[in-house]
Structure formats: C-alpha cells, structure tokens
Predict the 3D structure of the following.
Amino acid sequence: MNSIYVETNDKRYPIYFAHDFDGLGKAVEENGLLGRKLCIISDSNVSSIYGEKVKKALEDYFESIFVYTFNAGEKSKNLNTISDFYEFFLENHIDRKTVVAALGGGVCGDMAGFAAATYLRGIKFIQIPTTLLAQVDSSVGGKVGVDFKNSKNIIGAFYQPEFVYINTQTLDTLPEREFNAGMAEVIKYGPIYSHEFTEYIVNNKKSVAQRDKHALEHIIKKCCEIKAEVVSKDEKEGGLREILNFGHTIGHAIETKMDFSLLHGECVALGMNAVFEICLKRNTVNENEYKELKELLEYFKLPLNISSIMPDEVYSQMFLDKKVKNNQLSFVLLEKYGKPFSTTQVNKDEIYSALNAVLR
Ligand code: ADP
Ligand code: ZN
C-alpha cells in the first residue's frame, strides 16, 4: 500500500493512502491489531454514508465491532459527548485490547482520540479521516481534545494513533464549503515549505476542485509528508511545529470573534492574507507571490476579506489565545517564500495594517 511514516519519540506509525476501504483490513493486520474488539466512533453524517462500508471492510479482522454515532458538528465537541462515549465503552465492556476507530472529520478524530487517550489510561486508536482538513492536518500529529466554554481545543492531550488510513474517495461526498475550507490548510503548506508545492496546486487546481483522485492523493500525501516531517522533529510544539500555525494567529482571533460562524479554514485564509500583507511590506515576499496566493484562495471560494468585525476587536482577541505567553503575540512570518520563522517582533502598526487589509 501507498504509505508514509510519522516518527515521534516513542512511536512510529504509518499513514496509508487509498481510493477505497479495501486495504483497511490489511492495515489492521500489518499493525498487529488483528482479532481484537473494535469500537468505531463516527458522526451522524459520516456514519450514515460510510459506517456500513467500513464495518464490512473490517468484519473479518476483528472479533466484534461496535459503532457509536454522535450528532455531527463542532457543537458536539465537548466533555458531555466524551462522557457519552465513556458510558458506551462501559456498557459494551470495552477493554484494554479494544481498538477505537475515528471515522469522520476533525471533530470526530479529536474526540475519539481524546476518549481513547483517557479511557483506561489509554487504549489503541486508529484514524480514518473523511474531511480534507482532517486528512491533511488534524489526523496527523497526535493532537486530540475537546472545546470547553467557548475555548477551542483547550482540554486535550498528545496521543498518537496506531495508523491513519486516508481514503481520498470519501471526499466525493464532502460539502463544497467544507472541501474549500480544507483547501486553505492545503494552500498553507506552500508558503511554509516550498513554492514548488504551490505551483503544483496552481497547475492542477481544476482537477483538485473536481476532486480527481490522483490530484487529491498527490496533494494530500505531500501535506502529510510535510506535517509528518515537522511533527517528527517537534512533537509537542517546542519550536518548529509552530510553523504549522501560519495564518492562525489572526485567523483564530477572527474565528472566535465571528462566533465560529466562519469555518476554521476560511479564517485561516483570512489570516494568511493578513500575514502576506506584513511580509509584502517587509519585502520578504513579492507582489507576484502575494497575487498568486490570493488568486488561489479565490479560486477555492475562500474569503480574502470580511467587513463584519473591526480591527480593534480582533487585535484584543489575539491576546486571549491560549498560545499567548507573557502577553506577547507570536506570528509565523516568511523569511522568504517557503522559509517560515516564528517571531514576537511584529509591531502594532504592522499588525493594524494587516488587519485593515482583511477587515474591510
Ligand atoms: P473538520 O474536519 O473540518 O474539523 P467536522 O469533523 O465537523 O469538521 O466535519 C465537517 C462536516 O462535514 C460535518 O458536518 C461532517 O459530518 C461532515 N463530513 C465529514 N466527512 C464527510 C464526508 N466524507 N462526506 C460528507 N460529509 C462529511
Ligand atoms: Zn488550522
């Protein structure tokens, strides 16, 4: 099977790339999980489309399979839902040898992973991500958790899966807005890694938008390779991993200020646009590179600016982010295209001119 590996301090695990679920059983076998019990956790949308297919693909490989379905959406991402998972685990005698499978988007992966990390102090889990965002970002790297009192992902853990199985065909049924929001995270990997990757997306944007499986596999695999490389060097965000937050300092603040009415990826698009504004003023990216980014975001119907909130509101919100240390904002900027660095040395004028560019 087509695969790559993620290596962390105490674990090495594969990410498989496929266009169906046929290889899932083999993945289970290869990772020594044969004959155990399986508990599939999925959301209401994904479960009704893919639940049976996954169950069928795995029935010969597990002793028994349980399925737990929760209501789809970020609103479910809280400790009450986790508590429902635990109850289901207890009722079905889920033990240390049971494997938890997350079948769904980022919300499902983060929650199933968190439940697996904490139940019986940790049982094995596997990721079967079905949104573009989850396939290129959240299912890789071991961050799991839930939202709490309007703070996103504030309760959580680092917990790596046994493997990640990406079936790009599942993206066929993903609503367009969700797909495009995932593209924001895909596009993010260009400026932080190499212009060559951006060129590939630009040259293949039509196939990608049409969800051609080969084009999708190419970009998803590349994103996973980049993320795996970053995570392998810095599992717990001591430094390098921060580059993955490109566009997120401003993006997160907008997301919160908009009461989560915009999707995460849409806010990342706004945040990247703002960061490019700063880099352009510093002459570390040029007009063409900026134009290319904007055109790509526009092609995938991502917002370049919004008018419903004020720069002051976003500016103060940024200081409330959980990543802020010593009341200092941290930004990922570009030394040049493909060369990111993290810094707290961005002055207020620069931040305001970036905010003014996207909030109008
Ligand atoms: P994200 O992955 O962006 O963090 P979610 O896990 O909430 O977000 O998924 C976004 C939405 O897309 C949810 O409503 C979810 O049920 C739905 N969804 C996820 N995967 C698919 C799919 N492959 N086909 C159709 N809908 C999907
Ligand atoms: Zn993100």
Notes: Residues 213-233 form the longest helix (21 residues). Residues 43, 45-46, 49, 72-74, 104-108, 130-131, 133-134, 170, 173-174, 178 surround adenosine-5'-diphosphate (ligand 1) (CB under 6 Å). The two ends are 48 Å apart (CA to CA).
